[in-house]
């Protein structure tokens, strides 16, 4: 039965990602927004829904290690695993001028949560600061994300169908990811793996499966801006939105290992992506291979 659920989850991820990318591209053109803005917001935030559910439920259940580990591990997986896989399939080359604002928000979010973790607790006040950062990011993205492209060239996808494909794809992605996460987590617990490691690896990768499916399919369809925007937007939402909202609900105690061991990885991957974007103009295939190798090293060390 477990293997059947695994296969069903994979199929759901593939078709959900396909419909999400096609629908989101059409929505962007309807509203004359750049695909990057749609990737950063609707796609990036939507594919982070599993992380939101897992973190809030974990915090309320008194399992803060999973709540924080899930977000930090997901941000690492998003850059090293998801962008690495996507860039290996098709080079993700985007001019740095299209990314600087969003990468700056990602770096700011990373720095903010690192400082907050140093004293061992993310308080309600700090959660409010993080959530305010999300509002500022959204306002900035939409105010500066208009494009001069005409509303034409939409093919046979009317607006109502584009939204239906986008939202339907998100729902299918979340269901597929949930099937995989539940089974993988139970297996890991049976082998005695700690909750912190489960959050940083299995749960983080599992809840990142919507991002993986979406970015890979976007890369295959040459929708580079959606592939990259999905990951950057998801990383921003994970910190500002998920940890911000979770801390507003209940303060989150943090194990010292997160600030000492895991945050250097989170910050290193965010800074590395920023450097690659400005030096290489994106991620060529060789960069994708290096990111995947780095993720393999990370998983090995965490194990």
Automatic annotation (TrEMBL):
One of its GO terms (biological process) is intracellular calcium ion homeostasis. GO terms for molecular function: calcium channel activity; calcium, potassium:sodium antiporter activity. It is a multi-pass membrane protein. It comes from the Bacteria. Keywords: Membrane, Transmembrane, Transmembrane helix. The chain crosses the membrane at residues 33-54, 66-93, 99-118, 125-143, 163-181, 226-249, 261-280, 286-302. Residues 3-142, 162-301 form the Sodium/calcium exchanger membrane region domain. Pfam families: Na_Ca_ex. GO terms for cellular component: plasma membrane. Its main location: membrane. InterPro entries: K/Na/Ca-exchanger, NaCa_Exmemb, NCX_ion-bd_dom_sf. It is found in: Membrane. This is Calcium/sodium antiporter. The lineage of its organism: Bacteria, Pseudomonadati, Pseudomonadota, Alphaproteobacteria, Rhodobacterales.
């Amino acid at each position: 039965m477990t293997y059947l659920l695994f296969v069903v989850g994979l199929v759901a991820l593939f078709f959900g990602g396909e419909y999400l990318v096609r629908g989101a591209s059409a929505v962007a053109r309807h509203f004359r927004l750049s695909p990057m803005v749609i990737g950063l917001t609707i796609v990036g935030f939507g594919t982070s829904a599993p992380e939101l559910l897992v973190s809030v439920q974990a915090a309320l259940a008194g399992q803060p290690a999973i709540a924080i580990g899930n977000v930090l591990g997901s941000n690492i997986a998003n850059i090293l695993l998801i962008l690495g896989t996507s860039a290996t399939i098709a080079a993700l080359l985007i001019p740095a001028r299209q990314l600087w604002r969003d990468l700056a928000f990602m770096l700011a979010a990373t720095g903010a949560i690192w400082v907050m973790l140093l004293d061992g607790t993310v308080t309600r006040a700090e959660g409010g600061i993080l959530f305010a950062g999300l509002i500022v990011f959204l306002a900035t993205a939409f105010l500066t994300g208009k494009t001069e492209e005409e509303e034409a060239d939409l093919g046979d996808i009317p607006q109502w169908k584009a939204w239906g494909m986008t939202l339907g794809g998100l729902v299918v992605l979340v269901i597929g990811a949930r099937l995989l996460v539940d089974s993988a987590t139970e297996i890991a617990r049976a082998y005695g793996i700690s909750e912190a490691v489960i959050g940083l690896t299995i749960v983080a990768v599992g809840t990142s499966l919507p991002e993986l499916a979406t970015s890979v399919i976007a890369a295959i369809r040459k929708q580079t801006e959606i592939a990259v925007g999905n990951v950057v937007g998801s990383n921003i939402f994970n910190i500002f939105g998920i940890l911000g909202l979770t801390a507003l609900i209940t303060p989150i105690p943090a194990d010292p290992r997160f600030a000492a061991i895991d945050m250097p990885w989170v910050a290193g991957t965010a800074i590395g992506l920023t450097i690659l974007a400005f030096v290489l103009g994106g991620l060529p295939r060789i960069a994708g291979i290096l990111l995947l190798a780095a993720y393999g090293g990370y998983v090995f060390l965490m194990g």
